[in-house]
Amino acid sequence: MESFVSTLLYLGSGLILLFIGFIAFTFSTKMSEQKLILEDGNIAVALKLAGKLVGLAIVIMSSAKYSVSFTDFIIWSLIGVLAQMVTYWIAEFILFPKVSFAKKVEEGNIAVAILLFTLSVTVGLLISGSISY
To answer: How far is it, in rounded angstroms, from Cα 9 to Cα 7?
Structure first.
């Protein structure tokens, strides 16, 4: 019974952390992802946001699997959210300073969305592989 309760605790917390990451990502952009995806059918925006969620889910999964305590799990998961946001800013403002990723994605540029999707998943995998004791 204890493992069942622990599973529910980690699952529930993981979903909350994923939601926090989702909210953080959507508030860090000027566009309305919800409108662009649900009303306008913008595939590029959906791909970008999906990549962020997958990348974050990878980190949360590894945090749950490799953490030594519940607090450790929360800390590593929050580090994953922060790392995803910092990576996006580094890519946009340092690696590609003359390109507005947000504008390109809002315009429906699938190539940029795939690049951002891949970047998010790659960072998620790197963070995931870095969590060790």
So the answer is: 5
pTM: 0.85
Range of the domain at 14: 2-130
Q: How far is 128 from 123, CA to CA, in rounded Å?
A: 8
Number of domains, the chain: 1
Tokens representing 105?
Answer: 């994605």
Q: What is the DSSP secondary-structure string of 42-98?
A: -HHHHHHHHHHHHHHHHHHHHHHHH-SSHHHHHHHHHHHHHHHHHHHHHIIIIISTT
| Model pLDDT for residues 5-63, shown as the tens digit of each residue | 989 999 999 999 999 988 888 777 766 777 888 888 899 999 998 998 999 999 999 99
* Residue 59: partners with Cβ closer than 8 Å, 6 or more residues away: 76, 77, 79, 80, 81, 83, 84, 124, 127, 128, 131
